[in-house]
Amino acid sequence: xxVQESPLARPWIAxxxxxxxxxxxxxxxxxxxxxxxxxxxAFTEATREMLESGNFITPYRDGEPxxxxxxxxxxxxxxxxxxxxxxxxxxxxPSALAATLWxxxxxxxxxxxxxxxxxxxxxxxxxNVLQVGIxxxxxxxxxxxxxxxxxxxxxxxxxxxxxxxxPRRRAYLWMGxxxxxxxxxxxxxxxxxxxVYLLSLRRFRDWLRSLFDPIGWLLFLAVVVPWHVAVYLDSxxxxxxxxxxxxxxxxxxxxIHGHSGFPLYYLVVLPLILLPFTGWFLxxxxxxxxxxxxxxxxxxxxxFASVLVFFSFSGTQLPxxxxxxxxxxxxxMARYRERLLSRWLAFLPLLLLxxxxxxLPELLALVASHTRKPxxxxxxxxxxxxxxxxxxxxxxVAMLGVxxxxxxxxxxxxxxxLLAGFVQTAVVSAVVVPRVxxxxxxxxxxxxxxxxxxxxxTVVYRTSLPSFSVYRQAITPTREPxxxxxxxxxxxxxxxxxxxxxxxxxxxxxxxxxxxxxxxxQEGAGG
Length: 527
Description:
Blueprint: H1 11-27, H2 39-53, E1 60-61, E2 64-65, H3 72-84, H4 88-113, H5 116-128, H6 130-136, H7 142-161, H8 165-182, H9 185-200, H10 204-211, H11 214-235, H12 238-253, H13 265-273, H14 278-284, H15 288-291, H16 295-312, H17 327-335, H18 343-358, H19 360-368, H20 374-386, H21 391-407, H22 413-440, H23 442-454, E3 458-460, H24 467-472, E4 486-490, H25 494-500, E5 506-512, E6 515-520
Parallel strand pairs: 3-4
Antiparallel strand pairs: 1-2, 4-6, 5-6
């Protein structure tokens, strides 16, 4: 089937599919599941405290400064909560909107540089990729950063094709907004990719001209500097020391929060985060060397390779870092869609994923038989309980649907796989994520609401689950508990708590999954 014969060649069909994909992947059930810890809990508690305190300069989490990220994501979440109230939908809405704009920017660039059908295909890939769907529904900074990185690098290529002030200065604006979202990474990759690409074309002077653009830097500084001055005046050097030295230089040299990896980490992770398009990606790798002769292909491959190489040697490695270099992959996969001819290569990765999900209850039982940790056992038991009911039936129906698409000869392989992407998105959003987050975070939310309803002072003991404070709508300190207070903790901390505070009798008022809520007696024994 040729590109012209594809239904996506009709604009109303293409826009219909793209709109349906965005609504399904980014907005459907956006507020139906609890916030997950640590990431969403930490971001959203800082936003909640920002609104409560009226301090829109320095983020705080549970009363302590949170210097992990710059300010823009907190402002966006605060604006959304101010309009819609404090709830999961409002806290996640900025990410969903940013992911939507990311898709729109990809479409515009693809339409300009490839063609309309290819642009629509690239968008459908982006929207239905597993990891993109996760960050688009997460109240974190990742979707916003990916938007600004993509916008900046699209302008880099436009400048390379036709050097002029407009794309160059727009790139500085997007870099500034990205810097205000997540720091130097938003500047590093546009500068590196533009340097490597223009060097490959023997146009180093064009790169120098873009680098030494005073108006561009003034735009960048106008976005970045005011808040940096304000946070210095508000809290001194704390942000600069923590964010730039620890969370940036330190993150590259050593693992942060235990997120270490190995040099081939992203070669292992990429096939997983690109599901269900893993086979498509593997087929695309054959186009790498031939594509070097094409200016657009060369730029896209260098963009992808720059991200992959940099983070492969970083001390801290996380799956979503690979998405910084995923936009060019989506465009390349769309451009060479007709080269995907093997049905088993295209559909097997998704069928394996669904098969794994079908066996998940048995896998949880297997893990449970090999661990003695109380919190892990509690989570596994809760997870197995929630995997009952119609879970297997829903996964089996999805597998049959994907099998049918793999055998449907009236559509091309890539068209069938795009439709299978809708199946994966629906399964993840409606079947998997609600059960996973109900297992992990449902008990945290219930305990927090119970603590809030009681009106009692509450402390946390040796546990980091910041969404508890979000749902309790109050700072939850980690200080020593006092008689009459509530204490929130993971179940594996209970024995140590009893040893640490033998003179504080308590009763368990809530226990589910891996968390527990205690109420201390009004008068401590021997008090």
